[in-house]
Amino acid sequence: MTSATVTLRDSLRTMMLTPALSGREERMMRLMENAFGSLADQVETDRPGNVIARFDGTDAKAPRVMLFAHMDQLGMVVRKIDDGGFVRLERLGGVPEKVLPGTPMLLETEAGELLPGVIGPKAHHATPQEEKNSVTPYGALFLDLGFSSREEAVARGVQVGCPVVYRPRFDLLGEHRVAGTTVDNRGGCAVLVETARRLRKKPHRCTVFIVGTVQEEFNLRGAMVAAEQIRPDIAIALDVVVSGDTPDLKDRTEAALGGGPVLGMYSFHGRGTLNGVLPHPALVRSTRDVAAAAGIPLQRNATGGLLTDLSYVQLVGRGVAPLELSFPARYTHSPVELCDLRDLEGLSDLLEGLLFSWGPETDLRR
Length: 366
Description:
Blueprint: H1 3-16, H2 26-37, E1 42-45, E2 51-55, E3 64-70, E4 75-81, E5 87-92, E6 104-108, E7 114-119, E8 143-144, H3 150-155, E9 163-166, E10 170-173, E11 177-180, H4 183-201, E12 207-213, H5 222-230, E13 234-242, E14 262-269, E15 275-277, H6 281-294, E16 299-304, H7 310-313, E17 321-329, E18 337-340, H8 341-357
Parallel strand pairs: 3-12, 3-13, 13-17, 14-16
Antiparallel strand pairs: 1-2, 2-12, 4-5, 4-9, 6-7, 6-9, 7-8, 10-11, 11-18, 14-15, 14-17
Helix pairs in contact: 1-4, 1-8, 4-8, 6-8
């Protein structure tokens, strides 16, 4: 492993083991504030909770750049506490119901205590044949925290609205691959911190705002507030993209683990939001040129059913030049997401090349 890969691995481990449900991102906020504190020219946290680190550029005429990744994760909230102490849950974000039975979970109490629990599947020996191959709706599932009564659960701080997430885990698979919770989007956050380290080392012409955003999994809310404050010329979103190198997805996309960072050429979410991103042509050219000059392998992706918070950031002010850069991940939105650390390092290298290449001559006209 290179030293950058080791640093990214260690950052990613810390972040993946840090629970931060959308709307309850305080632990990740503190972590990002501390990481940026010794690197940035200024660090502030806005009212929604976005952590904004400013890195001053040397040329006021160079573009203002907003580079961001979301700190939050999907999960569930307590909907009801049964008389027997079992907890009923409501989904927050795109939690796949089929992975829930038998999944270890973590609940945060009103006082901030973290309580382990499990979503109990019906005992296999008592499951009728017609149910064995069906998916149980989340409304019929329950979280078992080991309590014997509602009163016992409430006395420990369990209340309606408490956040519940997959129990955090980090597993290193082989030398370069990581599996566990919240690769989406702790991988992006780890790259943010690595990019901040590189910006601190030498002058750059652009003023860069590196932002850990909140509430992406809850309708993409945080990033747009940060963008309204920053008013960037260029916005770069870092997030996962579905890897197509497993047998079940080999026909969906060309993105593959270990193949390098991914340039988003088209994204569109056709359900409900009717939004997406078409990248700015000048930024596509710039990304392609920087990758080629540095020998960074660059993958491309065009897909429906995918949405990042850049979809709304691009609409701020007079319009922002958008660019989606990603890293491939398997098993997204499950408790066992998987990525390759070499892709995170390649993404960091690509961002370094881009941020140090832009200046007053960068032409964003169409």
